[in-house]
């Protein structure tokens, strides 16, 4: 118990007293929003999120008399531990697993959402004396899945229960091949890069052809009018851009094709779509070749964008989140290439005059996603099209990789509104989301590199 209490105190002290920015940063003429803390800044900034789950030791309620039976696989009894310590252990586990969470200190609940949109709720109860066993000396932790993937739920549920009992620190120690491709990848700054299935320096011709044929089949699935087909197609793209699933060479070739072509980007760009249906062969006025199939799939002209049902709108939001994950995977694969020629692929692509990655609409959409860093999951679930903290983390990662290979994108990061959003995202990442913290720290390190070298 003292272990978690000491960590809690040290974390709160380190976050409350941040070290002052070096004077060399001012010489580099960076905006002041990056150099000063929220307390001394005159710019209106959102409140800093709290890391621990603020639960008082004597605020827990007993389990109601006619409460439904609890699932033993999703419930744990923590004896001899106070409620505040259990809550802090759970909050730290959710942070290290990069789970979006919203705490309710009145009802002692936590509403959480994983990166693959699995929603679940955590409830803390006070133990009581029963005719057979005395549970009054501990805390009961109950986790209930509301919607989403059951495999993702049970994986994070097991980690939460182990952390609540004090059996682990909450960190994810699984090997890459033991994780699901829909989960976050291990960051290079946190762990060493794991060996992948194949380390060929150059892909063979058969691999290139195979990747092209596979992507053509996926595009056919995305053009279908069934929502489950479109979701399966986007999940296949995530699998194909994950080296630990399909192999390094195949993931690299798939990523290069996806970045070179332009049919993936309309799924990411947030814009108002036309209400009139368009034919599949009709050309668009923009530089992108494909419309979002879910918004042009209407069989009747009566079905406009205003009368889509709730499930269709949520599906559109989920599809965009998956497409953003595909873009991040593709960018990560090409910059981590072992071959020198493959490593220069992204730099050469960004230098081309008609590069779709440098479209202003795409950059502005990724910039808007950063505002989801401090957006509660309940707000996202009740609304349509809003970015979550997961999309904010992926957007930061995409812009970070592009900024490392294109001076124009790095200049885009240096704008005042982008640095303000970066500051908020860093605060939220340190508090609740380890993956967002790693991405924002890398961006901050890159932006202040010249100032530190002075």
TrEMBL record:
<feature type="region of interest" description="Disordered">
    <location>
        <begin position="1"/>
        <end position="26"/>
    </location>
</feature>
<protein>
    <recommendedName>
        <fullName>KA1 domain-containing protein</fullName>
    </recommendedName>
</protein>
<feature type="domain" description="KA1">
    <location>
        <begin position="111"/>
        <end position="166"/>
    </location>
</feature>
<dbReference type="InterPro" id="IPR001772">
    <property type="entry name" value="KA1_dom"/>
</dbReference>
């Amino acid at each position: 118990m003292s272990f978690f209490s000491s960590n809690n105190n040290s974390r709160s002290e380190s976050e409350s007293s941040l070290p002052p920015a070096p004077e060399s940063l001012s010489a580099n003429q960076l905006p002041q929003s990056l150099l000063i803390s929220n307390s001394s800044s005159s710019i209106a900034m959102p409140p800093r999120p709290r890391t621990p789950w603020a639960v008082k030791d004597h605020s827990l309620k007993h389990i109601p008399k006619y409460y439904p039976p609890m699932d033993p696989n999703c419930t744990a009894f923590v004896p001899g531990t106070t409620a505040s310590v259990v809550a802090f252990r759970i909050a730290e586990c959710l942070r290290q697993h990069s789970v979006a969470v919203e705490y309710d200190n009145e009802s002692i609940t936590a509403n959480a959402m994983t990166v693959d949109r699995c929603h679940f709720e955590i409830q803390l109860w006070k133990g009581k004396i029963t005719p057979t066993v005395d549970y009054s000396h501990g805390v009961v932790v109950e986790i209930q899945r509301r919607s989403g993937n059951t495999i993702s739920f049970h994986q994070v549920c097991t980690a939460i229960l182990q952390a609540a009992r004090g059996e682990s620190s909450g960190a994810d120690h699984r090997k890459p091949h033991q994780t699901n491709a829909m989960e976050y990848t291990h960051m290079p700054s946190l762990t060493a890069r794991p060996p992948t299935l194949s380390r060929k320096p150059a892909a063979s011709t058969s691999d290139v052809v195979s990747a092209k044929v596979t992507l053509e089949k996926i595009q056919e699935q995305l053009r279908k009018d069934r929502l489950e087909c479109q979701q399966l197609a986007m999940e296949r793209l995530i699998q194909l851009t994950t080296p630990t699933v399909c192999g390094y060479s195949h993931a690299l070739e798939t990523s290069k094709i996806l970045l070179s072509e332009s049919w993936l980007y309309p799924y990411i760009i947030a814009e108002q779509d036309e209400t009139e249906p368009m034919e599949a062969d009709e050309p668009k006025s923009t530089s992108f070749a494909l419309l979002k199939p879910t918004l042009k799939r209407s069989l009747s002209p009566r079905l406009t964008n205003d009368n889509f049902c709730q499930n269709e709108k949520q599906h559109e939001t989920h599809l965009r989140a998956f497409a953003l994950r595909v873009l991040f995977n593709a960018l990560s694969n090409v910059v981590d290439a072992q071959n020198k020629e493959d490593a220069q692929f992204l730099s050469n692509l960004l230098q081309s005059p008609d590069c779709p990655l440098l479209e202003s609409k795409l950059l502005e959409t990724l910039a808007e996603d950063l505002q989801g860093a401090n957006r509660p999951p309940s707000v996202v679930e009740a609304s349509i099209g809003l970015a979550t903290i997961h999309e904010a983390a992926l957007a930061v990662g995409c812009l970070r990789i592009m900024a490392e290979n294109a001076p124009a994108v790095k200049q885009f990061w240096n704008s005042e509104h982008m640095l303000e959003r970066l500051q908020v995202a860093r605060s939220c990442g340190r508090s609740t989301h380890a993956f967002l913290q790693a991405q924002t720290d890398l961006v901050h390190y890159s932006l202040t590199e010249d100032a530190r070298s002075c």
